[in-house]
Design a protein that fits this description.
Blueprint: H1 2-26, H2 28-32, H3 41-44, H4 46-66, E1 79-80, H5 83-106, H6 114-120, H7 125-153, H8 158-171, H9 176-196, H10 200-216, H11 221-228, H12 231-253, E2 258-259
Antiparallel strand pairs: 1-2
């Protein structure tokens, strides 16, 4: 439990550190001239914020590896998932995400400007590296390999540990539009971690999810189409997609696997 709390502080601290670094970077001319910090400059320089977060995330990954919070074998496949299991697991995951998106389209929630931020950097390669690869990897190392495994080692019931790690993962996203999808995503990724015993499948799913989300920024009309749908068809799509995802995940969980040879 102590390790889980420490990891939450590490994650939150890394976000604060990245923000402070970005604030200093964009205000450097002002500071040299003897003026004070202007926080509004961060809004005009979104890339700087993401660049500093990329640097800090690399530092966090190194720290987790050096302190052995993340095991060397964390990405080694201990079980051999068949192609059918991989396909069903990923389909279940994305159906749950899709169903959640339909539900959110029924009642759009404030996102704290995150969509506008990500849209403004969708063509920047370093920002894409952060959003699609480094960010998901860091989060999986902290919330699944770190927090979830720590809670299980503290004799928490595995399903309770999955729920707590998923709730923590959701809350740190900080806005309602991301909290709900992050909760669903966190629950599914937690189950992936429990079944495989390591991070490889969780990370693949997380990277693919973020990559699809970033690609969708290039077609904003997709979100507009969902929001323009009438309530009944939208609700039907949400229920079908979410129900199919939950059923597929249940079937995936019950499949038999073989030890990795």
């Amino acid at each position: 439990m102590k390790n889980a709390l420490l990891l939450i502080l590490v994650f939150l601290g890394s976000q604060v550190l990245a923000t402070c670094m970005a604030l200093l970077a964009v205000n450097m001319p002002n500071l040299i001239a003897g003026a004070g910090l202007d926080e509004t400059l961060l809004l005009d320089n979104p890339r700087v914020s993401l660049y500093t977060l990329l640097i800090v995330d690399f530092l966090v990954i190194g720290l987790l590896a050096l302190t052995k919070v993340c095991r060397r074998e964390a990405f080694v496949r201990r079980i051999r998932l068949s192609q059918r299991e991989v396909v069903i697991g990923l389909c279940a995951f994305f159906l749950l995400v899709l169903g959640t998106s339909f539900f959110l389209a029924l009642t759009p929630l404030p996102d704290g400007g995150s969509t506008a931020l990500f849209s403004s950097v969708k063509g920047d390669r370093l920002c894409l590296l952060l959003l699609c690869v480094v960010g998901p990897l860091t989060e999986e190392m902290i919330f699944r390999e770190g927090i979830l495994r720590s809670l299980i080692q503290s004799n928490w019931h595995p399903m309770v540990a999955v729920a707590v790690s998923a709730a923590t993962f959701a809350l740190v996203h900080g806005n309602l539009a991301q909290i709900i999808p992050a909760l669903i995503l966190g629950l599914a990724l937690g189950l992936f971690y429990l079944r495989t015993g390591n991070l490889w499948f969780c990370t693949v799913a997380h990277v693919l999810n973020n990559s699809i989300a970033v690609l969708s920024l290039h077609w904003p009309e997709t979100e507009s189409w969902m929001q323009e749908m009438s309530t009944l068809p939208l609700l039907a799509c949400a229920l079908v997609a979410f129900g199919a995802g939950a059923f597929s995940l249940y079937k995936w969980w019950g499949m038999k696997t073989l030890p990795q040879g």
